[in-house]
Write a structure and sequence with these properties.
mainly alpha; DNA-binding; Arc Repressor Mutant, subunit A; homodimer
Chain lengths: 137, 137
DNA sequence: GAGACCAGGTCTTATTTAGAGACTGATATC
DNA sequence: GATATCAGTCTCTAAATAAGACCTGGTCTC
């Protein structure tokens, strides 16, 4: 056996299968959820559907432009849906699609890992940054 | 109950705990593994330790600059270690640290999700892109 | 009638990120 | 003696990403 590499993470598998970076699912997915606001937006929508202005209020510092862009990205990938209610002041609701819901468990796993190990990462960073970069002599 | 939101992903929790984006573990972690080469590098190191040139050969299209930068990032965060062997042509080996190993399962979960759902995401994209952006009349 | 709210669009900068390619210096091969 | 390997560094440029400010149009309030 190969020593505990989770299935799907085996590099040689990818290579053997003829790795194509542009079509790589992982690259594609990480490009989306790895951007500045998507993970946050996703988790804001995880609890319940929300309206545009509501999201804008609760997500700290996001600009309307970025919020629109993030939501369009989620919509384009089929992770969220957009519902327009033609009320007097227009109201638009965003909600996670069934597909969008399925990403929550794996994403949650990573979030849990991050929360759990961030202290150690910070210590590692502090150590690394304190190291002398130019060896004295 | 809140309807199946994984623990740690609850937005209201974060808000209640006084969300600070700069210190946010999730943002920090996603910034690292969400970049262009880190996930790939991580999975190349998952199987076994590798030397710099070896990584450079097997990771398609990465430049030395990016490879160095990616490895430094992993080293800085304590996810990988660097071992220099002062042989005649110098040889440097990179290997995952114990901490680095612990990220493989959650990362693997996301990779599996990506692989499994990418076809559907692509269909969603095709649908979205085929939609008339300016409603005719 | 001046302004605010809704959900954005647009336009112009910054900042960040990535890439290409030349250079290092010691050894080793041809 | 020209060239290659090793593990990088360096500079410069290009591309992607994000921020900020202002604009829309209809209704609603003051």
């Amino acid at each position: 056996m190969s020593g505990g590499v989770p299935p799907g993470l085996s590099f040689s598998e990818w290579q053997a299968a003829g790795f194509d970076a542009t079509a790589c699912p992982v690259r594609n997915v990480l490009d989306r959820i790895g951007d500045k606001w998507t993970a946050l937006t996703l988790s804001a929508l995880a609890e319940r559907p929300r309206r545009f202005s509501e999201l804008h209020r609760i997500i700290p510092d996001i600009s309307k432009r970025m919020l629109t862009q993030t939501l369009r990205g989620l919509e384009r990938d089929g992770l969220a849906t957009r519902h327009v209610f033609p009320t007097k002041p227009p109201s638009v609701e965003y909600r996670l699609s069934p597909l969008g819901r399925t990403v929550l468990p794996p994403l949650g796993g990573l979030v849990a890992w991050a929360a759990e190990n961030f202290p150690e990462i910070r210590r590692a960073r502090a150590r690394f940054d304190a190291m002398p970069e130019t060896g004295g002599e």
